[in-house]
Q: What sequence folds into this?
């Protein structure tokens, strides 16, 4: 059976991770790890060893050029052909890739989660189902502020500065236009039970 690949995209703080992890967690006891896996687009941020940490912090991380999408496509193709991959890992505190990788084995269904999955035609073509988390931008900002302060050691001023300079303008230029390319729009963030159950049912059908 051809591997089915599902994209879950939307703004930073829109509920992508919660939605994806909820679906995955609730299906794990039913399907097991051999049927379903998750890949994060964040893992494919480009390595920046050539930059100082101050220079890394100043980069635009909400532009398609920030990602090594060609590697992500290569890895999705490899998994679709039944081969294992070694996915890069990313450290948000250092704004750089980690030295270690994680082995990911091929499964019948792959969920890819990230902000810019539908932003290029080459990547768009890889997805069988495309989901857009349609969460109000002000709510996304509040969630981002809470997350970046508690999990990534950021202060409020740096979060606000980055939001004004890159996050908000990149949302309107690259992220919001993906909405028209999606098959499914999910309101109310990652806790939308109807959407969760629909995706779980769809994945069960794909696996069968």
A:
């Amino acid at each position: 059976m051809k591997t089915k690949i599902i994209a879950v995209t939307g703004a930073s703080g829109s509920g992508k991770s919660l939605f994806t992890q909820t679906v995955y967690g609730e299906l794990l006891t039913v399907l097991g790890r051999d049927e379903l896996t998750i890949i994060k687009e964040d893992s494919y941020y480009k390595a920046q060893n050539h930059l100082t940490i101050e220079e890394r912090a100043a980069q635009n991380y909400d532009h398609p050029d920030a990602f090594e999408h060609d590697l992500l496509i290569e890895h999705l193709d490899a998994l679709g052909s039944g081969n294992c991959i070694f996915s890069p890992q990313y450290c948000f505190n250092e704004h750089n890739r980690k030295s270690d990788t994680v082995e990911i084995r091929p499964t019948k269904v792959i969920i890819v989660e990230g902000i810019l999955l539908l932003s290029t035609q080459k990547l768009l073509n890889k997805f069988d189902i495309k989901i857009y988390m349609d969460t109000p931008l002000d709510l996304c900002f509040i969630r981002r502020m809470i997350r970046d302060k508690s999990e990534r050691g950021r202060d409020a001023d740096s979060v606000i500065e980055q939001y004004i300079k890159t996050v908000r303008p990149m949302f309107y230029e690259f992220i919001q236009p993906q909405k028209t390319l999606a098959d499914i729009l999910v309101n109310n963030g990652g806790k939308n039970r109807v959407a969760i159950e629909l995706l779980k049912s769809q994945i069960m059908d794909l696996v069968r």
Summary: The chain has seven helices and seven strands. Helices lie at 16-31, 53-57, 69-80, 121-124, 137-151, 156-175, 193-207.
